[in-house]
Amino acid sequence: MNKKVLVISYSQSGQLNELCHNIVIPLQESNDVDVTIKQITPLKPYPFPWDFITFMDCFPESVYLDPPLIETLEDNEEYDLVILCYQVWFLSPSLPITAFLKSEYAQKKLKNKPVITVIGCRNMWIMAQEKVKQLLLEIEAKLIDNIVLIDQGNSLATFVTTPRWMLTGKRDSLWGIFPEAGIAQKELDNANRFGKAILKGLQENKEKEFKPLCQGLKAVNVDVTLIKSEQIATKSFMIWGKLIRKIGKQGSKKRRPVVMLYVLFLLLIILTIVPLNMLIQTILRKINKDKIMKQKEFYELPSGSGIQRLKEYTSDE
Ligand SMILES: Cc1cc2nc3c(=O)[nH]c(=O)nc-3n(C[C@H](O)[C@H](O)[C@H](O)COP(=O)(O)O)c2cc1C
User: Looking at the structure, do residues 137 and 105 belong to the same domain, yes or no?
Assistant: First the structure.
């Protein structure tokens, strides 16, 4: 009997769709699997490229997981595996994906089903995945793998290239200093290794055991220097987000001054406290090495950062 795989995605530039497409090619090419790809469509589309105020204005709803209205999904299928592809917005799942996870359709189709999450983002995804884990738990879905691809370049470079891409649509390398924005093409191309491993797992009925199918394939890598920053930033987003949500609804003119005040506050923090905090965190990480390594291991679950099967699944490239 053919295995049925449901793929859910919401992409703006098309990058996440390319990633998810590369992963599912081996499944689509197999006679053993039927793949259904569904795009999430918000009733009120988000802009791309973004204007700055609309971009910042959607952080309160993103962090508070306030679902926007999306086009209803419906079908009579029962799926064996679900691949959920999402981008990160303000250390949270993107709003269309939050809406999907809170939809009746997801409650029906994902209950007791194995789910593989696929993230394509700048580089800060840990807190978003914790939120997705919680949303999956609430609908009794079983997370069996997490695959994460991040933008090329170091944190400083992507702090320029990713926002430039989001706000202007421009992806090319800048001044010969900054790399192209987004995930490196080679990384996107090599993502088909996950599809091959998922296919093998399905053929061996491994998904029914709710165990990872993508271990040993370098599916994730937690950058320990970002754990604390994500935790601190999440707290700040929650505090300011609560205040801004009280002032008005998303898009309302009333909240713009406070959103801009928060941007100023963020700039001030980035220029003053962030460098000092980075220094303190570097020292603390040295002192708390064991604790940090445990955190890294935890956030890398269930797929892990191991590379022991890489050769087997990338040998023909
Ligand atoms: C509103 C917004 C907020 C974002 N916040 C984050 C973030 O917190 N962490 C991160 O790593 N990337 C963040 N990104 C980048 C996205 O995760 C993603 O890389 C980018 O939107 C490209 O997605 P696409 O492939 O669907 O076009 C954000 C993007 C947008 C539009």
Answer: yes
